[in-house]
Amino acid sequence: MKKLLIASNNAHKFEELSAILSHLDLKLFKPRDLGVDLEVAETGNSYYENALIKAQAFHEASGLPVLADDSGLEVMALDGLPGIHSHRFVPFGNATDRDRCFYLLGRLAGKPEPWLAAFHSTALLYINANEIYSSEGICPGKIITDYRGENGFGFDPVFYIPEQKQTMAELSSELKNQISHRARAIQGFNALRNWAKP
Amino acid sequence: MKKLLIASNNAHKFEELSAILSHLDLKLFKPRDLGVDLEVAETGNSYYENALIKAQAFHEASGLPVLADDSGLEVMALDGLPGIHSHRFVPFGNATDRDRCFYLLGRLAGKPEPWLAAFHSTALLYINANEIYSSEGICPGKIITDYRGENGFGFDPVFYIPEQKQTMAELSSELKNQISHRARAIQGFNALRNWAKP
Whole-model pTM? Predict the structure, then answer.
């Protein structure tokens, strides 16, 4: 069984990816399992670049193949913002996820509805410096002037998925792990599936 | 010593007004002191109308002379919003004061700074149906992309007062009760001062 390090210190993200990857025959590690303690500055100009920066850093620190993910919310009426800048979207250091949601609603006030949006994820498999693969996933929806649901994180409570009649934060974990941007990036990741084969 | 009922269930506002009125020779009551339990819908189209609606209701319920206050934040770049609609500004029922601040910052994103603003207060003295007086106070400042200070409430943490180099929420109570919109409305309220004389 191959070993794979998930390049994230975020417990939420690790849980999600573990569940999404559970059908593959892999032994997953989080950085802490290996004594790896890294804060990686996401200075890239794209999801791919940010995922690559994280994957490289965690590969160098661990020697293991690494799966990195970089994701963001893109709102059409804001020309794709917050995008890869989701965490720097609010010009205020100690903003919480909830603060960011209300800031986003303020940004959208007065713009014609529906406020179409999509969550975007780039998953990147870094086996070594010569074998790097990536896959993208998108989950379309719209921003609503409401704040609903206790699951998830980030902009999930204001991101509504019409087919499900729920916000991303209202979805059960099972459903989220089938239809989320992150799930879709992994579902279409042939290189990952091939590599994972025993 | 004349009796005066403060027409507000808001403990913050009662404390502030008590301090601001402390130089007058009045015995102040809050509604609960008199067993008055009223929720008044602020359906007016101006600070004055809202203050009058509240004052009338509390006067009818208590028989006492009443001091009512209606206040709001006016932001120039938003054509005076949130104004008297401060509480309905965020289109979401359970929004907190902090949520409203971040929503406001979102509304202002991209608009040229400085984001000039003013807190506005209308204080209204309702002695009886034939003796009604009012006074206005304004505290000018600007909205900043920060969230500073633990005192105060509402939009105070994002309202910066250049002369003091502090947000409204950073001011000491003593200073706030000298320079706030509410303080200024009372300071200039000659009818109140004359009526309060023993």
Answer: 0.82
Of the candidates A98, A106, A108, the beta carbon closest to that of B105 is on A106
pLDDT, average across residues B129-153: 93
Mean pLDDT for the stretch of residues B176-192: 96
Token pair in block for residue A100: 């960011």
Interface of A with B (CB under 8 A): 90-92, 94-95, 98-100, 102-109, 145-147
CA A29, CA A88: separation in Å to the nearest integer? 28
CB contact under 8 A, B103 and A108: no
So what's the architecture of B2-196 in CATH? Alpha-Beta Complex (3.90)
- Phi and psi, residue A75, nearest 5°: -110, 125
Q: How many CB atoms lie within 10 A of CB B196?
A: 18
- Spans of all domains in chain B: 2-196
ipTM of the complex: 0.72
**Does pLDDT of B15 surpass 80?**
yes
Which residues of chain A carry a pLDDT beneath 70?
none
Q: From the list A94, A95, A102, which residue is nearest B103 (CB)?
A: A102
Q: Which of B138, B137, B136, B156 is nearest to B146 (CA)?
A: B156
Is A124 in contact with A52 (CB distance < 8 Å)? yes
Q: Is A40 left (phi over 0), alpha (psi -120 to 50) or beta?
A: beta
What distance in Å separates the CA atoms of residue A34 and residue A48, rounded to the nearest whole number?
25
Q: State the smallest CA–CA distance between residue A9 and chain B in angstroms.
A: 27
Cβ distance A146 to B109 less than 8 Å, yes or no, reads: no
Name residue B188's amino acid: G
